Automatic annotation (TrEMBL):
Pfam families reported in the protein's UniProt record: FMN_red (PF03358)
PANTHER family in UniProt: CHROMATE REDUCTASE (PTHR30543), NAD(P)H-DEPENDENT FMN REDUCTASE LOT6 (PTHR30543:SF21)
InterPro entries: Flavoprotein-like_sf, FMN_Rdtase-like_dom, NAD(P)H-dep_reductase
Protein name as catalogued: NADPH-dependent FMN reductase
Signal peptide: none
Domain of life: Bacteria
Ranges where the NADPH-dependent FMN reductase-like domain occurs: 3-143
C-alpha cells in the first residue's frame, strides 16, 4: 500500500481544484490516501530578505515533511491569467529553497480544472515542465474543462461520461504505476 498525498495549488476557500482533487482521492481504493490544504501551511511571500532574516518556518518544514513522507502526490493546479497562481508558485519557491530536490523520486499525477473550456491547461503544462526540476516524476496528467458544467457537486461525480472514462483511466494508470 502506497501513501498518496492529494492537494490543490489554490488558496481559495471555495477552490474547485480542491474539490476536484478531493473527488480524485475518493476514487482511489487500496492505498493510504491523505488530502491536505496548502492554506493550513501559511507561508509569507517568498523573498531572499525574509529567508535570510527569518529562515524556514515551522509551517514550511511541516509541509516539506508531509511531502517527504508520501510515496506519491496528486496535485490539482489552478490557473490565474494563463499561469499557475502566485500562491502555488510561492509554495514551490519556499519548498525548493528548503530543499532543491524536495520532490526527489516522487511520482506525481497532475490535474487542473477551471470553468473555462481549456480546464486550466496552461497552468497544467507549466507545472508539468517545472516539477521535474525538483526531482518529480510526472507520470500522468489530466485537464478537466468547464468544471461547473461537467462536475456534479451534489452527486460528487463527473457528469460527462467521456470525461469520466478518461479521468478514471488516467487515475487508474497512475495508481498502477505506483506499484512498479
Amino acid at each position: 500500500m502506497k501513501k498518496i498525498l492529494f492537494l490543490a495549488g489554490s488558496n481559495s476557500s471555495k477552490s474547485i481544484n480542491h474539490k476536484f482533487v478531493s473527488f480524485a482521492a475518493s476514487q482511489v481504493a487500496g492505498q493510504n490516501v491523505e488530502i491536505i490544504k496548502l492554506t493550513d501551511y501559511d507561508l509569507p511571500m517568498f523573498g531572499e530578505d525574509i529567508e535570510r532574516e527569518k529562515g524556514y518556518s515551522a509551517n514550511l518544514k511541516m509541509l516539506y515533511n508531509k511531502i517527504r513522507e508520501a510515496d506519491a502526490l496528486v496535485i490539482s493546479v489552478n490557473e490565474h491569467n494563463g499561469m499557475v497562481s502566485a500562491y502555488f508558485k510561492n509554495t514551490i519557491d519556499w519548498l525548493s529553497r528548503l530543499d532543491r530536490n524536495f520532490l526527489d523520486g516522487k511520482k506525481v499525477m497532475l490535474m487542473s480544472t477551471s470553468n473555462g473550456r481549456r480546464g486550466a491547461a496552461s497552468a497544467l503544462e507549466y507545472t508539468k515542465s517545472i516539477l521535474p526540476r525538483f526531482g518529480a516524476i510526472v507520470v500522468e496528467s489530466f485537464s478537466f474543462p468547464s468544471y461547473s458544467h461537467n462536475f456534479s457537486e451534489e452527486n460528487q461525480s463527473i457528469s460527462d461520461e467521456i470525461l469520466l472514462l478518461g479521468f478514471t483511466d488516467v487515475l487508474q494508470n497512475f495508481v498502477h504505476q505506483l506499484e512498479q
